[in-house]
Every structure is written in C-alpha cells, then in structure tokens.
Model the fold of this input.
Amino acid sequence: MTSVLIIDDEEKMSSVLARMLAREGCDAEHTSSPKDGLKRIMQRHFDIVLSDLRMPEMSGIELLERVQHISPSTDFVVMTAYASVQTAIETMKKGAIDYLIKPFPIDELKLLVKRLEASRNLREENQRLRDVIRQSFSLEDMVAQSSQMRDVIARARKVAASNANVLLRGESGTGKEVLAKAIHNMSPRLREPLVVVNCGAIPDTLLESELFGHVKGSFTGAIENRKGMFETANSGTVFLDEIGEIPTHLQVKLLRVLQEGEIQRIGDSRPQMVDVRVIAATNRDLEQAVANATFRQDLYYRLNVIPICLPPLRERREDIPALITLFLRKFTPQGSVKQLSPNALDLLLRYDYPGNIRELENAIEHAVVLSEAAMIQTSDLPLQIQNFDWSRSSFNTGASVEGMRLDEVEKQCILAALEKARYNYTRAARHLGITRRTLGYRIQKYGLQDIIEENMRPLRRVKEGG
Done:
C-alpha cells in the first residue's frame, strides 16, 4: 500500500485529496502545517509527500530540502496555483519528483501516484537484484584455500575501499572478471553501475562508440544519440577486460578519461565529465607490449596503480577440491546428489587445467550431464582430461587415491611428493605446485610430522654410514 502525506495550508483541499486517495487504496494522511508534516515524517516513512509550493509557515522549497534530509527515499511532489511552470521545474531541479498545477483533475493525481508506485517497485526490484548479484560476487565467497589466493583476496579487500585503478593479471579463465565484480561490490560504489566491456570482443570500428558514445548523424548508421559505456557507468565502475587488445588510436582517449575524467562522444564538440573507477584485466604481457610500442607507456602506468596477479589453477591445487564441490552443487539437479569416484577425483586433482577455473567448471558440468548414475566415473570426464599426458603433469607424484576420502588424498599426495623429493620441502612443494609455506601448513594441519620423521630415519642412517 502506497503511503501519502498531503501538506497544504488549505485544510479543505488537503482533506479532500486524502479521502480520494484513501478510496484508491492509499494510506493517506493530511495536515495544513508543514512543521506538523515534518514531525510525522520523522515518526514514520511516507512513500510520497504532496505539498503546496506557497505556504505561510514554510515554503514548499524549504520543506523539500528538509524532507530530503530526513527521508531521502520519499518522492516529493509540489502543487502550485501561483507559480509558473518554470518555477515548478526549478523545484524539480532541487529534487522534487514531479509537479501539479492547481486546479488539477483528480484523475491526474491518481495516475501520478500509480506511476510513482510503479517506479518505486522497479527501484526496489533493481536493488534486490543488485543485492543478489553482490552476494554472488563477494570476496568472502571466493575459494581461497591456497596461500596464493588468500594473498589475492587480502590485497583485493584493501584496494576495494579506494578509488584507485586496478590491473588484474593472469591467464585466461583464472577468475579476473569474478574478482573485478567482487571488488566493485565491496567498494563505496556498490550501489552504482558496474559496466563490463570486453575490449577484445568488439570490432575496432565499433569500440570507440561503445566506450564513449556518439551523436546522431556522426557516422553512417548513427540514427540517434547514444551513451557510451563510461557515461552509463558514471559514479560506478568500468571493467575493461582484455585491455591489451585496445587499438592504439583509442588508448589516447582512454588515457584522457583516466587523467581528466573527460569523455567526448563521436561527433560532439563538447567534452563531458564522468566519475568512474576503472578495473582492467589482461592475460597479455603489457610490459612487452610497451616495449614493442603497441601499448602506451603512460596508459600502462595509469592502469597499473594496483596490480593483482591471479595464479593459474595448477599453482593453487589446494583450491581444486573446494571448486569441485562448488561446481557439483551448481550443476547437480535439485534433489539429487552426484559424487566423484576415487579415480575420477584423482584425474581432476592431477590435471594441469590449461583453461584454469573455466575449464574445471566446464569439466564438472560435462560430467554431471553425461553421468547416468549418482557416481561420476572417469569415462564421464572430458576426453582432454582422460587422454592427458600424465608424465608431463606438474602434479606427477604417483599417488593413488583408490578408496580414499578427500583429506586422505591430500595426505597421500604430500607424502608421495616428499618421498620423491627425498624430503626436501622446497622441491616437494614445487612438485605439488604450491609454496613451501603452504606445504608446511598442510603438514601441520594433518599431523604428518611424526610420519615424515620416521620415513627420514633410513635416509639419515645412509648418510651417516656413508
């Protein structure tokens, strides 16, 4: 039910309007005193305030300013019989949502209330969707069992609160866009737009118009004025994916946005100011591109204020079990449960994933769709995983996982890697694709110190005997 407060020094007028709106299903109150109206607004929320513009106790403009301070989400509508339309428009510039010129038909007021109700419902739905998206892309929800990803999350959390430009680096499929969305959703701009631009997917001839917009008639096919991505994202964030693919003639214009906060539509002689935070991503070697003169050095330094490098999945293998669980939940039909056989799990844990997280996600979806039983077998996995040359794997420990739980798999892999490296922690960590610190943490977590000590005794006796 839409709640409306009518404030008009003509008591009869406000009373009649309140009764009419009540018959339309509104929760309508009225008062002839602006000060009394302010007290009511402080006591409860009103969706709409309908106020006269000229009142002896307080002007409608002064009342508007106070209402905006007390209840910013309330729609303020002015009524006037004295001022010109231009005066009412000036009031709208100060924040009024609409105006009515007295005397007005009651049907006009009814339509206005319905239109404001529909607009409010749309805003609330958009906010609900933003909240859902924000919950789907938060730093807390990102899988970060490995020390490398914990470092990435810690760095992203620090930078999220600032307006600094961020450059995300990493191989394709490592989660750069997911991290960019999480940074935006943790930033003060979270309620403003996040606009994603894939610079490598848009033809060079169209990219300038996509980024900066154009005016009608500026080129063949420009049949109307159009906003660009930067203008659309004003007050929010622009995520420039594949920034290394942007052509050199547009790099100057992008640099101007970063330096001056200005954009210029194609065919427009007037620049426009925008306030955007830029997060860029690339899987290319930008330093080499600068050396080859295909990427501007000044633009590189403007983008590379805060660099964050996302490790490939083969270097953060501790995260693979949690990612597998996440994707199984995502793709398994509701009400059923899919599990991996030990051999299938073994393949997924040891595979090198040249396509990184995206390839793992596709592999799980592939297996869930093709498996006819609750237990996913190796034959359900994509052929590139089944036919992988395991002798070239960065995880070639020779461990077997038949009949083991996930934690047992990890213990077995750690012990196998240590034995292969003759208990040199640095070499074992390299075999596993993790850091030495992470290996030490895992050894303590699983209480493997005594087992390792026992296995090392024969090696020490050999050395002592030698």
Observations:
- Residues 106-136 form the longest helix (31 residues).
- DSSP finds 20 helices and 14 strands in the chain.
- The mean pLDDT is 86.
